[in-house]
Amino acid sequence: METLTLADAKEMIDAAETESDEIGVPMCIAVVDAGANLLGFHRVDDALLASISIAQNKAYSSVAMKMPTEDIGEAAQPGEPLYGIETTDDGRIVTFGGGFPVESDGSVIGAIGVSGGSPDEDMTVARAGLDAIN
């Protein structure tokens, strides 16, 4: 796969929504391409309004930094190399779990971001989206 397509985004969102339903936590799910352009977005009924921008920013963070948001958070702790990064890029960099890059042949071709639950719940739902196309 060279690029992430709308069809891929729909598949990812459908799988993530199914997982969201299974764990009983309404989520917002965002998928972006390699340029951080929004390919698809879905807000499950009753998902937190704040989760709309958080999900999109998690996807943005993962593609911009080419790493999961959880890893960004670890590298952003005091004394670590990315300490303070969450204050850059107009505050769009998210430092807690729920965002994952989508990779193909060693290149980042997009990302998924999920928000609505705890970071662990968000990561579980995001991984379901990733697994749908891997």
**Could you state the CATH homologous superfamily?**
Haem-degrading domain
Provide the CATH top-level class. Alpha Beta
How many DSSP-defined strands?
A: 4
Report strand order across the widest sheet.
Answer: 2-1-4-3
In what range is the share of β-strand residues? 15-25%
End-to-end C-alpha gap: 10 Å
Largest sheet: 4 strands, antiparallel
Oligomer: single chain
Radius of gyration: 14 Å
Descriptive overview:
- With 134 residues, the chain is an alpha+beta fold.
- It has a single domain (6-131), classed as Haem-degrading domain (Beta-Lactamase).
- It has four helices and four strands, in the order H-E-E-H-H-E-E-H.
- The protein has helices spanning 6-23, 50-65, 69-75, 119-131, and strands at residues 28-33, 38-43, 99-104, 107-115.
- It has a four-stranded antiparallel β-sheet with strand order 2-1-4-3.
- A hairpin with a 2-residue loop joins strand 3 (99-104) and strand 4.
- Helix 1 crosses helix 4.
- It is globular, with a radius of gyration of 14 Å.
- The chain starts with 5 loop residues before the first helix and ends with a helix.
Task: Chart the SSEs and their pairings.
Layout: H1 6-23, E1 28-33, E2 38-43, H2 50-65, H3 69-75, E3 99-104, E4 107-115, H4 119-131
Antiparallel strand pairs: 1-2, 1-4, 3-4
Helix pairs in contact: 1-4
